[in-house]
Design a protein that fits this description.
Pepsin-like_plant, TAXi_C, single chain, protease, aspartic-type endopeptidase activity, about 450 residues, about 35% strand, hydrolase, six-stranded mixed β-barrel, about 20% helix, four-stranded mixed beta sheet, alpha+beta
Length: about 450
């Protein structure tokens, strides 16, 4: 009898252990399925009416980005230039419970995620998806002004926090260099995103700015292109990349496709570790730290080659000085590439010497080198590459730096950086066709032409 009971006991124990192991394996499989988040990047227009207007919008954006460095001693932790760019990519975000769909500008040049909000109760007069309806979400919650998170955003100078009131929301004021401004409540909400498994995954307590007041051309004019806010992907602690990245390996990547093609190929943003990004085919360069700003993704340029010939550019041209000026930033919201003027002049001189095509009869305003390609079905241009820190080389196809600006006219899509307190910017046109991976744990940026054609 004792032997029989022992047999039954061990059989039951084996069954329970097997069930537990199977349950653990099933849980592990479900966990592994949510490896990364995949978000399509949309581009609503190819250019404003002319490339010259694209240049004008880029300059306004850069002035805004540079303002964050000029104001660094005032301890304004956030300055976004996303809304003043001309070549933005957009992300479709679902926010709230039940989810509300909103279109946000994807911006590596800022940290704050913010959306246009409405406090309406009866919202029949509002166009669908034109704003986040805070009262219609059961999970919306503003931070209190005495919460430590409230110190992460610029607060109004007037109106001290009333610690004795139970409901005293954290107010923020977010200003742009052109006088545009957004005001609202720094809040938390549930967001719903698509994981690699295809299932929708909910994330609670996403910190974001709920904007109830917006003014100025940067965030209400045509350049904002109908977006309802900005998805900050910068290095700061409140960016979407930081908040969600902690759960997905603290890295994100994107592929920006050529939006002038027809049909337009799909660009995408990946948050987490993805098989789409093949590390063995990646070239990596270190993220450079600027002690005066925690937002931007700096890389180190060591030299420039045209047709495999190094140009005589001093290393100090690319360096960050003791005041935080200079350096080079990877930016998703600027269309063209802006380079420190001494480097820009050397590059233009080299192209003028090597390009054998005739000059355009009517050059495009704002561009220093334009050529006539009429009668040339496949015009050829000299190769350009950048030697980066970490012994990597960023070699570009000519279509990333010579663009169509008019019929039978192509122009060099580079611009000189003339602001003394600014930095060089690698714009999204130069990034097209590459996967860019931002690995924040290893403090490095990877790039590859493999994988970008597979959305």
């Amino acid at each position: 009898m004792a032997t029989k009971r022992a047999t039954i006991f061990f059989s039951l124990l084996f069954f329970l252990l097997s069930a537990a192991t199977a349950a653990t394996a099933a849980t592990s499989r479900r966990t592994q399925k949510v490896e990364y988040l995949k978000l399509p990047l949309l581009h609503k227009d190819t250019f404003p009416p002319t490339p010259s207007q694209s240049l004008s919008s880029d300059i306004r954006r850069l002035n805004t980005l540079y303002s964050s460095l000029r104001h660094r001693r005032a301890k304004l932790p956030l300055t976004s230039g996303a809304s003043t760019g001309s070549g933005q990519y957009f992300v479709d975000l679902r926010l709230g419970t039940p989810p509300q769909r909103l279109l946000l500008v994807a911006d590596t040049g800022s940290d704050l995620v913010w959306v246009t909000c409405s406090a309406c109760r009866n919202c029949t007069r509002r166009l669908p998806n034109s704003a986040f309806l805070a009262r219609h979400s059961s999970t919306y919650l503003p931070y209190h002004c005495y919460d430590k998170q409230c110190r992460l955003v610029p607060n109004p100078r007037s109106g001290a926090c009333n610690h004795t009131r139970q409901h005293s929301p954290c107010r923020y004021e977010y200003s742009y260099s052109d006088g545009s401004e957004t005001k609202g409540f720094f809040s938390t909400e549930t967001t719903t995103l698509n994981a690699s498994s295809g299932i929708a995954v909910k994330f609670k307590r996403l910190a974001f700015g709920c904007s109830f007041e917006a003014s100025g051309p940067s965030i209400t004019g045509p350049s904002f292109n109908g977006a309802q806010g900005v998805m900050g992907l910068g290095r700061g602690s409140i960016s979407l990349a930081s908040q969600l990245g902690r759960r997905f390996g603290n890295k994100f990547a994107y592929c920006l496709m050529d939006y002038t093609l027809s049909p337009t190929p799909t660009s995408y943003l990946l948050i987490g570790r993805s098989n789409t990004v093949n590390g063995s085919k990646m070239s990596y360069t270190p993220m450079i730290n600027n002690p005066f700003t925690s937002t931007f993704y700096y890389i180190g340029i060591e030299s420039v080659y045209i047709e495999d010939v190094i140009l005589p550019i001093r290393p100090s041209v690319w360096a960050i000085d003791e005041l935080g000026n200079g350096g080079t930033v990877i930016d998703s919201g600027t269309t063209l590439t802006f380079l420190a003027e001494p480097a820009y002049r050397r590059i233009v001189q080299a192209f003028k010497r090597l390009v054998k095509l005739p000059k355009a009869d009517a050059p495009t305003i704002g561009f220093d080198l334009c050529v006539n390609v009429s009668g040339v079905p496949r015009p050829s241009f000299p190769k350009m590459s950048f030697k980066l820190s970490g012994d990597s080389v960023f070699s570009l196809p000519p279509g990333n730096y010579f663009i169509d600006t008019a019929e039978d006219v192509k122009c060099l899509a580079l611009q000189p950086l003339t602001a003394p307190s600014g930095f060089s910017v690698i714009g999204n046109l130069m990034q097209q066709g590459f996967v860019f991976e931002f690995d924040r744990d290893r403090s490095r940026i990877g790039f590859s032409r493999h994988g970008c054609s597979k959305p």
